[in-house]
Design a protein that fits this description.
Shape of chain B: elongated
Distance between the termini of chain A: 48 Å
Strand content of chain B: 15-25%
Strand order of the largest sheet of chain B: 14-27-26-25-15-23-24
Distance between the termini of chain B: 40 Å
Number of strands of chain B: 27
Radius of gyration of chain A: 18 Å
Helix content of chain B: 40-55%
Number of helices of chain B: 26
Shape of chain A: elongated
Largest sheet of chain B: 7 strands, mixed
Number of helices of chain A: 2
Oligomer: heterodimer
Largest sheet of chain A: none
């Protein structure tokens, strides 16, 4: 069962990473207009992300 | 509030909110509209960036200094989108600190739940002894801080309720969270078999989702309501010496002289000191015919000055205006209405004591039976966790989010949390006439040639006068405006120009030397125009739909009997009462209530305000006066009123879904509670019952969208 010493920290680390990304996305206003974002994928032209 | 302060600190850093323009786009609805708007704006000189928010039907524009909204609006109109500038000051700052905090709490509890669940699954599938204890210990390290932090919204609300001596849904939730965490910690330290960390965390996670949905519905309604207020900048033109300065309404003092140009709404009560004009009092009294005003006549806030420029002396401001007289009536009525408690509150009132009773019975019963306090506490906590209103907390917000989103797309904005439930119970609809069943459009013009119509359109386009706008709206859409030269607006009289060398004019009969009002003059030929009231879009369909749904309709108006009956006949409404004063309308609603009717009042004017407030549920069109919109439960943003029967139908369906959700949640409890009481419940069963009931409730709520 020694493998747990490696696996448990890895799984926790992945979780923390996910949480960090979520907080970053939240901070940079990515959840402001969900309905609009769902429609933006239908734009035909070249659409570059915000600089 | 400490939660609001971090947001205050970050506000000035937001460059978009500082220098940006906000434009409302009431007609956009799809991806093509979004990219159309953004491309149109990006072609305007000086626009740095433009981003559409489809959820709010709004575009945010960052411009170079000196570029105003006028260019952007012109570009949008040219591209075929209706656009209205929003007053950024009245709109306020958009930061939603509570929503952010809730989302972060959802994220934290979600992270903790997933990791703890991973460890718990290993325990359930057979990890034992030291491995199990280690997993429990790691779970505790993740779960305890997460529960303590993410559960705060519940602890605050439960504490507030307990201090006031009440029980709400948050009390059993907080109790379950705290007890489960403490007991599981104790079990972990003493090498026990069961720990409920995962259950406590999934409880937090699901309930926070319910909380957030609830909050989002509210904030959407509030920001849209603020948007309506921002559409009508509250300023007045004050006469100072020889000039005129524009000041915020709040700075107008008693005795000030205000200038009221033609076409403007009277901002406060006063007396005419100079000028002559006619007034549209539709918003104040419901009358459709204009009234003459001369020096010495009273003006009431809300009247629209139609023809000549006026100057008035202010005789009442703020609290003393006519608005206030209505407000007294409104307050009485609103107090009566606030007693309506929503389904969620009623469920909580029954449920919370029951949960505590069951857990208490389990604790005392098992203690007496076995004499083992640790076992009895474990069973009592299992009962608390199983009964915890996880699905119940989602039952109402999930359905109302889905339903209010759909109503918003149809152009109906819910302002009040229980409006949807009350709308579902409506069995009688009372309409106001002026501004509600009718709109400003003039009737179609008869006997004019195609050429004359195109001259009329060009002249009407040049004037901002309400009569001209009414004429314009009444013209067929395919008329092309004629090319005019030397266009000139004569204030108080009308518009004149030359058309291929012929003098043409549109204006008052007396000014153009003809009888009738208004007159179109081409060369020497004059021709009187029709200005009668025209029905709002969809009235006939709405009344027909309501009748088909078994809902009574009625017309209450302050206008004359003849005008009322003419419109009622066109709309298909049989019950009509005309010449009503505001108190009279309230009295009629009281009578209907006494007969056991649940009335939906639809009205727009100052004279409707007390009736709107006293009705079971109320709706105002977006064109209504501020006060009318403020007291209403719903605002009709769509100019087409034909959506009304659909809205009631949707509300009824939503209410059915809510009841179904309560039944589903109760069913899970009926199965699981006896097991928990008997001491057979394991953490695995608690987790299964909780997630399946929450998911089935959410899935059922989504059916409203279809």
């Amino acid at each position: 069962m020694n493998i747990l010493i490696v696996l448990v920290p890895i799984s926790l680390g992945l979780g923390v990473m996910w949480l960090g990304w979520f907080l970053w996305a939240l901070k940079s206003d990515q959840f402001e207009d969900l309905e609009g974002d769902a429609n933006r994928i239908l734009f035909g032209d070249d659409d570059a992300p915000k600089p | 509030m400490t939660a609001a302060c971090p947001a205050c600190a970050t506000m000035p850093d937001d460059p978009v909110a500082e220098g940006g323009l906000q434009i409302s786009l009431p007609t956009i609805h799809c991806a093509a509209c979004m990219s159309g708007v953004e491309q149109a704006l990006n072609r305007v000189n000086g626009v740095i960036s433009a981003r559409v928010n489809l959820g709010l039907k709004r575009v945010r524009i960052v411009t170079a200094p000196g570029v105003g909204a006028a260019d952007c609006i012109a570009a949008l109109r040219a591209a075929g989108y209706d656009a209205l500038e929003l007053d950024t000051a009245a709109l306020g700052v958009e930061a939603d600190a509570t929503g952010r905090t809730l989302l972060v709490a959802i994220g934290v509890s979600g992270f903790a739940m997933m990791n703890v669940m991973l460890l718990s699954v290993s325990v359930w599938s057979g990890a034992s002894d030291a491995t199990r204890d280690m997993f429990h210990l790691i779970s505790a390290m993740i779960a305890l801080p997460a529960i303590a932090w993410a559960g705060q919204p519940f602890y605050h609300s439960a504490w507030a309720a307990l201090r006031a001596g009440r029980l709400n849904m948050e009390v059993p939730i907080s109790l379950a969270l705290i007890l489960a965490a403490c007991m599981s910690l104790y079990e972990t330290i003493n090498n026990g078999d069961h720990a409920y960390f995962d259950a406590a965390l999934s409880l937090t996670f699901f309930l926070l989702i319910g909380r957030y949905l609830d909050h989002r519905t509210r904030i959407a309604a509030r920001s849209a309501a603020r948007e309506l207020a921002a559409l009508e900048p509250s300023r007045a033109d004050r006469v100072v010496g020889a000039g005129i300065e524009t000041v915020p309404l709040a700075q107008v003092a008693l005795g000030d002289i205000l200038s009221i140009p033609a076409g403007m709404r009277v901002p406060v009560d006063g007396i005419v000191t100079r000028g002559q004009s006619s007034l549209d009092r539709g918003f104040v009294t419901g009358e459709s015919a204009p009234v003459l005003a001369d020096v010495g006549d009273d003006l009431v806030a809300g009247e629209v000055n139609l023809t000549g420029a006026l100057e008035m002396r202010v005789t009442a401001v703020g609290e003393d205006t006519t608005l206030r007289r209505m407000a007294a009536l409104v307050e009485v009525a609103e107090n009566a209405r606030n007693k309506y408690s929503g389904l969620a509150d009623r469920a909580a009132a029954v449920y919370a004591p029951l949960v505590h009773l069951l857990a208490g019975v389990a604790l005392v019963g098992w203690w007496l039976y076995s004499g083992d306090l640790r076992l009895s506490l474990n069973i009592a906590i299992a009962v608390l966790i199983i009964t915890c209103p996880c699905a119940l907390g989602l039952a109402v917000p999930a359905v109302s989010t889905a339903a209010s989103g759909r109503l918003f797309r149809q152009g109906i904005l819910l302002k009040n949390a229980t409006a949807l439930e009350r709308l579902a119970e409506v069995d009688c609809v009372v309409f106001d006439k002026t501004g509600t069943l009718t709109d400003g459009r003039a009737s179609a013009q008869a006997g004019l040639s195609r050429e004359e119509l195109s001259v009329l359109k060009a002249l009407a386009l040049a004037s901002s006068h309400p009569v001209a706008r009414g004429l314009l709206a009444g013209l067929p859409g395919d008329v092309v405006p004629a090319p005019l030269d030397a266009l000139e607006e004569i204030s108080g009289n009308g518009v004149r120009a030359t058309w291929n060398g012929t003098p043409v004019a549109l204006g008052r009969g007396a000014w153009l030397g003809a009888i009738g009002n208004p007159i179109l003059k081409i060369g020497d030929a004059t021709c009187p125009l029709a200005t009668g009231e025209q029905m709002r879009l969809g009235v006939v369909e709405a009344v027909r739909g309501l009748k088909a749904a078994g809902i009574d309709t009625m017309l209450l108006t302050g206008d004359t009997s003849a005008a009322a009956h003419r419109i009622a006949a066109k709309a298909g409404i049989v019950a009509v009462q005309a010449d009503m004063r505001p108190e009279g309308k309230v009295a009629v609603l009281e009578q209907l209530r006494a007969q056991g009717k649940k009335v939906l009042m639809v009205g727009d004017g100052l004279n409707d305000t007390p009736a709107l407030a006293s009705a079971f549920v109320s709706m105002a069109p977006a064109s209504a006066m501020d006060v009318a919109r403020v007291v209403s439960d719903m605002v009709l943003l769509n100019p087409d009123i034909a959506v009304l029967p659909d809205a009631i139908h949707l509300a009824r369906r939503a209410k059915k879904r809510i009841v179904e959700n309560f039944v589903t949640a109760a069913l899970y409890n009926v199965v699981a509670v006896p097991l928990a009481l008997a001491g057979f419940c394991t953490p695995l069963m608690a987790a299964l019952a909780m997630s399946t009931s929450s998911i089935s409730v959410l899935a059922n709520a989504l059916r409203v969208r279809a």
